[in-house]
């Protein structure tokens, strides 16, 4: 069993402690630390192995947006999952732009947060179902990819793979669904990242929402 090392970042001690207690009941979760802002989180992960960060948005000194940015610049492989409120949509937009793996509302059930952690660690986008359309539409206001899709020269296969990534499928699952080898899927994803000038699967998933491939 692979153990997921989680860092909780929130300026409210009760929230940090509550999340730690609940998440620690899962055998595959190891809460390795708790911090009160993004700068503390960066200093912590420089000294400790972390797979994913549960990051609040509104915090003093270094908020979740800046925290996501500075952490992803230095530790690209660490996932950042935003825990926020519905009113933070502009902050969410910025956090996604800087590489966050998605967001969940603070009133989410602990089961949903647990499942979100597992999905994010696999490289898929995590979006709270209640407000997905609202937030994704606000993200898409900045650029309208649907009118420019031809300029990226994406093949039908690449468009299909983009859609399946947004649907949360792994490389192996996509390969099985399309009757292709996993290596072929990896090569296609590399081509997609190059064509779209993106960094990772999360950004591919966001792109899929923007152009209407995923709902």
From TrEMBL:
Q: Which GO molecular function annotations are given, in alphabetical order?
A: DNA binding
The species is: Tepidimicrobium xylanilyticum
Q: Which residues form the Response regulatory domain?
A: 5-121
4-aspartylphosphate: residues bearing it: 56
What is the protein's given name? Two component transcriptional regulator, LuxR family
Q: Which residues form the HTH luxR-type domain?
A: 147-212
Q: Which InterPro entries match?
A: CheY-like_superfamily (IPR011006), NreC/VraR/RcsB-like_REC (IPR058245), Sig_transdc_resp-reg_C-effctor (IPR016032), Sig_transdc_resp-reg_receiver (IPR001789), Tscrpt_reg_LuxR_C (IPR000792), WalR-like (IPR039420)
Give one Pfam hit by family name: Response_reg
UniProt key word Phosphoprotein: yes
Which keywords belong to this entry?
A: DNA-binding, Phosphoprotein, Transcription, Transcription regulation
One Gene Ontology term of the biological-process aspect is: regulation of DNA-templated transcription
The organism's superkingdom is given as Bacteria
């Amino acid at each position: 069993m692979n153990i997921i090392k989680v860092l909780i970042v929130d300026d409210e001690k009760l929230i940090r402690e509550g999340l730690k207690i609940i998440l620690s009941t899962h055998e595959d979760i190891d809460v390795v630390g708790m911090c009160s802002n993004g700068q503390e989180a960066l200093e912590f992960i420089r000294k400790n192995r972390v797979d994913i960060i549960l990051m609040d948005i509104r915090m003093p000194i270094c908020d979740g947006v800046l925290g996501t940015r500075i952490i992803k610049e230095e530790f690209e492989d660490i996932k950042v999952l935003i825990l926020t409120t519905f009113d933070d949509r502009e902050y969410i937009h910025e956090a996604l732009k800087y590489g966050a793996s998605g967001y969940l509302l603070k009133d989410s059930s602990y089961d949903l947060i647990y499942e979100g952690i597992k999905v994010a660690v696999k490289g898929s986008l995590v979006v709270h179902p209640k407000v997905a359309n609202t937030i994704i539409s606000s993200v898409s206001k900045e650029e309208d990819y649907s009118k420019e899709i031809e300029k990226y020269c994406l093949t039908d296969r690449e468009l299909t793979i983009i859609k399946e990534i947004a649907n949360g499928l792994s490389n192996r699952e996509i390969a099985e669904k399309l009757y292709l080898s996993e290596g072929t899927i990896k090569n296609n994803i590399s081509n997609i990242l190059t064509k779209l000038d993106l960094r990772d699967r999360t950004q591919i998933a966001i792109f899929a929402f923007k152009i209407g491939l995923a709902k």
